Fold this sequence. Notes:
This protein has 550 residues and is of the alpha/beta class. It has three domains: 7-267, Rossmann fold; 341-440, Luciferase, Domain 3 (Luciferase, domain 3), CATH 2.30.38; 445-545, GMP Synthetase, Chain A, domain 3. It has a nine-stranded mixed sheet with strand order 2-1-11-10-12-13-14-15-16, sandwiched between helices.
Amino acid sequence: MLENLSLYEAFQTSVKNTPFGKAVYYQGTQFSYRRFSHLVDRMADILVHQLGIKPKDVILVAQPNIPDTLILIYAINKIGAIVNLVHPFTPYNQIRSIMEKTQTKIAFLFEQRVAKEVEQYRGIADRIYVTRVEDYLPIAKKNFYHIFMNKDIRKKLGKFRGKFKGFSYLYQLKPTGKSVETVTGKSKEISVYLHSGSTTGEPKIICLCDDNFNFICDQTDVAASLPREQLKHFGMLSVLPSFHGFGFCMTMHNSLTNSMNCILIPKYSPKEVVKTMKKTSVNLCVGVPTMFESLLNYSPFVKSKKLKNWFVCFSGGDTLSTVLKERFDNVMKSHGSPCRVFEGYGLTESVAAITINTFEHNREGSIGYPLHDVQIRIVDDNGKELPRGEIGEITIKSKATMVSYLNDDEATKKAVVDGWLYTGDLGYVDKDNYLFFKLRKKRVIKVSGVGVFPTEIEALVNHIQGVKGCCAVRIPDDRLQSAVKIFVVADYFDEQGMKDLILDTCRKYLIRWAVPKEIEFIEKLPMTMLNKVNFSKLQKEEDERRHLEG
C-alpha cells in the first residue's frame, strides 16, 4: 500500500482517509490530520521560499518528541531534501562535526542544549533555528512553562538577542502561498540520515530511503494481529526518541501512516505516562526493557484502570527477560486487558524491527518471526549458510535494508553482500523459522536501549594527556540494564584527579549514556597476537568477577 511513496505521501494517505481523525497528541493539545497536514505544508512553503532549501539539501533535526520534530521531518521530505536526525542533547563539538561531515545547510536544535554551550553556538547562529518544548502546549501550560520552568534558558539565550532565531520565528514569516511541489518517484533514493553503529560496532552515518520506512509501517496489521481498518484511531504511545529508527519509524511514522493517534511524550517518566493515559486513549506502546521495568515499579501505573484499553506492546533495543515479560503480562491480565508485551529484533541498517513475536506467531526465548517478505539466513565466517539450529551470524534480506553508509563504499560492501545484510549478531533459526539471539559479534553496549560505541569512548579518552591506553566494557546496571566501565593505563596520575578529568571530558563530548559509570586504572592492557587490545578478554574477566558467566 505504501510502496513507492515518499514519507510525506505515505502520511497523506491518512490525511485523505481520516482528515478529522486524531493525528498528534501533545501534552493536552490534539491535532487532527487535516490541521497537522496544514502545518507541514506551511513549513514546506517557508523552507523553500523563505530559506531557499532545495532537493537534496541536508537539514539537521536534533529535537525531542515534540510536534516541531514531525512537522519538520515531513516538510523536509515533501520538498525532496534529506533529514539528518541527531540526538537532541548531542554536545556542540559533535553537532559541528556532523554538520561538516553531512554538509548540513541548516540545523534545528533544541534550546535546552544550545543554552548549555551558547558561546560556542554563536559561531554558527546564522545556520541554526532553536526549538522550544512549549510552542504547542495549551495556553495555561505554555505560560507556566515560559515563566517558571525556562527562565534560565531564556536568560542565557537572551544575552545574544537577535543571534538565535526560534522555530516560532519561522511562523511569523508569512507563507508565500506559492505552490510547493511534492517530490515524487524517488522513494528508493536517500531521504534520511541516522547515526548509529555499523555492523562492526564502529559509529557510522546510515543512509535510508522512504521505502525502507514504509516497508515496516505497511505491516503494522501483521504485528498487531488486527485488520488495518481496526487500527484506525488507536493511540500509539510515542516515548522512544525520534532520532532513532526504532522511535521515528515504529511509533511516529507508523502511527501517521495507519490513521492512528501519535501520542508524543518529550521526556519519558512513568509519571508522565500515567498522566497522559488519563487525558487520551493509549492502546499501543513500543519501548525498551528498562522502560517496561520502570512502569511496573510505579504503583499508579500498575493500579491504573486505563490499562484495560491497552492492546499490545513491543520491546526492542535490548533483551527482554522472561521474568519481566511475565510480570508485565500478569499486570495486564489482572486488569482484564488482552495486552501482552512481545519482543522483536532489528537494527538501524534495517530501520527497525524485522522479526517480531505477535499474538499469532510467538515462541518463548525467540526474538521473533520474520515479517512478510523478510528472509533470515544464518551463515558461518565464510558466508556459507548453516543448517537450522546451528549458531552463526544473522543475515537479513528485505526491502528495509539501508541504501548505504555515508561516504563509505568499503564498509557498505562488507555489510550488504548480494542483498544480504550482515548484522554482526550471532544467533540461530529453529525449524519453524523463529529467530533466536545468542550474542553480539560487534562492539556495541546497549545502555537503556541506546547504542553506545566503545571505540568512540576509547578514541576520546586516549587523547587525554597522561593516558597511554584504555578499553571500554559492559557492566550490569540496576536502572539502565547496562552501563560502561573503562580500564585505563596512565603515565602519571593523581587517581581522583585523573578520574575527574576523564569524566569531565566524556560529559563534554559524548552523549550521557556513553559516560563511564566506573573507571579502573591498570598497569597494562591485554593484547592479541596482532597487537590489538584484547577487549574480549577484559570483558570475560569482568563478567567473571561479577559472577555473570554461565
